[in-house]
Amino acid sequence: MKQFWVFIKKEFLQVFRDQRTLLMLFGLPVAEIILFGFALSNDIKNANIAVIDYSRDVASQQLVEKIKSSGYFQVHEVLMSHEELEAAFKRGKIKLAVIFPTNFYQDLSHLNKAQIQVIADASDPNTATELTGYISSIVTDYQLKSATGARPSYVIVPEVRMLYNPELASAPNFVPGVMAMILLLICVMMGSVSIVKEKELGTMEILLVSPFKPILIIFAKMVPYLIISMFNVASILVLSVYLLDMPIRGSIPLLFVESFLYIVTGLSLGLLISTQTDSQQTAMFSSMLGMMLPTMLLSGYMFPIENMPKILQGLSYLVPSRWYYNIVKDIMLKGLGFSAIWKETLILLVMTAVALVVSLRSFKIRLE
Amino acid sequence: MSEPVIKTDKLAKHFGDFVAVNDVTFEVYPGEIFGFLGANGAGKTTAMRMLCGLSIPTSGTATVSGFDVFSQTDEIKKSIGYMSQKFSLYEDLTVSENIRFYAGIYGLTNQQIKQKTEELVERLGLQKEIKKRVSDLPLGWRQKISFCIAIVHEPKIVFLDEPTGGVDPVTRRQFWELIYEASQRGITNFVTTHYMDEAEYCDRLSIMVDGTIKALDTPANLRKNFNVTSMEDVFLQLAREAKRKEA
Prior knowledge:
The complex is a heterodimer.
Chain A: H1 2-17, H2 19-42, E1 47-53, H3 58-69, E2 73-77, H4 82-90, E3 96-100, H5 104-111, E4 113-121, H6 125-146, E5 155-163, H7 174-201, H8 203-209, H9 214-242, H10 252-276, H11 280-298, H12 310-316, H13 320-333, H14 338-367
Parallel strand pairs in A: 1-2, 1-3, 4-5
Antiparallel strand pairs in A: 3-4
Helix pairs in contact in A: 1-9, 2-7, 2-9, 7-9, 7-10, 7-11, 7-13, 9-10, 10-11, 10-13, 10-14, 13-14
Chain B: E1 6-15, E2 18-28, E3 33-38, H1 44-51, E4 59-64, E5 67-68, H2 73-79, E6 80-83, H3 95-105, H4 110-124, H5 139-150, E7 157-161, H6 169-184, E8 188-192, H7 196-201, E9 204-209, E10 212-217, H8 219-226, H9 231-240
Parallel strand pairs in B: 3-8, 3-9, 6-7, 7-8
Antiparallel strand pairs in B: 1-2, 1-4, 4-5, 9-10
Helix pairs in contact in B: 3-4, 5-6
């Protein structure tokens, strides 16, 4: 056991000595979160939208003025048919359209309640939700201020329609996606280099001749990256809560436990690559091609899985990040508990076990 | 003579149809510097790997410091040291960190490690270098340090696989002084080399050709028996008979 600690200590020393890698390990998650966070809030200013006002009354005009003066939109007041509207969306001229029906004011003054229609181009789901969110809050604000004296405030219901991607499958919430990506990136890459590095240096031979158990080499290699990655999970969560105002609705301990599992999965896959390759370069390359691309493309974070060809959908089952992405979304955004994610957890457990067993076995074979 | 520390009897290793090591029989005695020569691909490395417990022999028997190479590889590993032709220190760690690590995985206590480090600093005159990273040291230094680390746990036998590759003659000489010192302390040195001047430094030599040992004696006797003036000629005479191509 003492030997094991000696080994872990050495691994830590090596990790902390390589400052460039260290900067990447700790800096990347932070940079990514900040980058995504600000990229998101920036491009919403002055979005082109169309306002189609069939009602042309006091209330609708007031509301349109309010939308115009909000600063978020470039408003084009036009009257157009549904076909023309569709064409404008398709050409990308507008991101969103607000439609006041003919009977808007009538409903409002008689029933104290009316509807407007908000149609958004959801092929860019992030922008679409942001924009509809803005419109809704402007409308709510107008409602509140419309209450004068004895008259209760108007109720205006914006009926929102998301064009092209009704379920908003790739969700506005990039934090789970970034977590799934970054953790896997770090774990697989670092894991894949770790053992092959000793092989390349020639130190592996010495270790194998020593009484140190080969299986412990594998576990000792995991420990530093495991700790660093857990630290990264914490920093990503802190940043997203305090900098990006992301909620964590579910249990935080559960989130950490699941992240721990996912990190171990990533490291096991990295070690698997490491035991199969003979140079650091090959290891890096295979982890890039074998893990990074599938992780980015098939986890459902960048592109909705439902829209993929069947083959890719099938492949996505093999991508660990797909499952972790679901887990994080369920815990963070939906506030669900373990009963909702046990299946995903089980899949990650099986993946980890398979990767570990295969890498241990091939590690043993290499000793022969 | 005392009990041999390495004893093999018709030790063989086959890889499929290929016979890498063919019925090798020899004995090595405590404190001896035993040269293990052979052209590339003659089977030296395979034989050495079997003695280190890294590879299970196909047939024959062998014991290393009294332990069986088939069943007691764990015990063997504890009683041997090993230094390879490939560089074996961690370049991104300092000299003292390397010592602490290797001594640590052999189970030395902190007290022992401290003492060993001081000894090593003393013997090699490393006062200035001990806190330096290995990558900042010249090759000759690294080789010497590697050797001292290989015997830091006081093994009975140390296996040296072409330990002086790429080192200048002066440093090589210094390196051999370390080997002599170790041998005087009773550590058996099992050395492979390509340098014939180094072969002369050994107490006894074996020359391997095509997986079998073709000659085994002291350097002086070998020269006499082959009726030549230098070890190089002995080696060339034997190596010429080789049928195997270089691996």
